[in-house]
Amino acid sequence: MQATADLRHAVQLEDLGYEVAGRVILSGLTLRSSARRIGVVGRNGSGKSTLARLLAGLLAPSRGTLRVEGIDVQADRKAALATVGILFQNPEHQIIFPRVQEEIAFGLRQQGRSKSEAAAEALRVLALFDKAGWKDAPIQSLSQGQKHLVCMMAVLAMRPQLLILDEPFAGLDIPTKMQLGRHLDRCAIRLLHISHDPGDLRGYDEVHWLDRGRLVASGAADLVLPRFTAEMIRQGGLDDLSQLSD
Ligand SMILES: Nc1ncnc2c1ncn2[C@@H]1O[C@H](COP(=O)(O)OP(=O)(O)OP(=O)(O)O)[C@@H](O)[C@H]1O
């Protein structure tokens, strides 16, 4: 563990930057938050997924520092695995195993649990979600929403302190989205939810607006989201697709 006394915030970015192949993707991000529901909103290509991967320790910052619950998630992978979970937009990017129970057990094995402990804990989590019957179900036979739920159960089984949601509900129908949202609401863990859709972040404790790799506004959801929405409508009336990746 690399926690130190001066790290007062659950999520702490200090002048964070990320570049790839000479291209600046994120620049000068400073964000300090201990809110329970943190939202990050931004257009396509604004750097949201890159930020999610940095927060999960899957990428190394090019400059600045990043700590989650006091941990340098890139340098201390073991502590990061115990602290941060991430749900991606596409469950296929997350799922490795053919059957539900072994998929859920995998993360627990990564955390150092024995095979039998991991299998038992996976069963416990399935029962908690009232899905004990899915134990041996082939994952490929599940619907997209059900695959998302498997990923959610797998990540929650690892008991992270922070769960990063990288647009995991995009493309799901409204009832499925609401059901998965209810599962998340039942969990007493910190959420950092990344989305281009302000509707996903309504009621969040705070929202940070990312634009072209920089934070342009931070504050309560009911202050930031209306400004973001108005700006998106303005831009929607102006530009065309050729400008999206600027
Ligand atoms: N490895 C990479 N190499 C080159 N460019 C990259 C790389 N990773 C990200 N980018 C570029 O950085 C920008 C931000 O990408 P990122 O996926 O983080 O944005 P995003 O806000 O999540 O977008 P979307 O909402 O479309 O998923 C994009 O223009 C993307 O093409």
TrEMBL record:
Every ABC transporter domain range: 11-237
Pfam families: ABC_tran
Keywords: ATP-binding, Nucleotide-binding, Transport
Annotated signal sequence range: none
InterPro entries to which the protein is assigned, alphabetical: AAA+_ATPase, ABC_transporter-like_ATP-bd, ABC_transpr_CbiO/EcfA_su, ECF_ABC_transporter_ATP-bd, P-loop_NTPase
Molecular-function GO terms, alphabetical: ATP binding
Entries under Gene3D superfamilies matching the protein: P-loop containing nucleotide triphosphate hydrolases (3.40.50.300)
Transmembrane parts of this sequence: none
Superkingdom of origin organism: Bacteria
Presence of the UniProt keyword Transport in the record: yes
Similarity comment: family membership: Belongs to the ABC transporter superfamily.
Name the record gives this protein: Energy-coupling factor ABC transporter ATP-binding protein
Native species: Paracoccus simplex
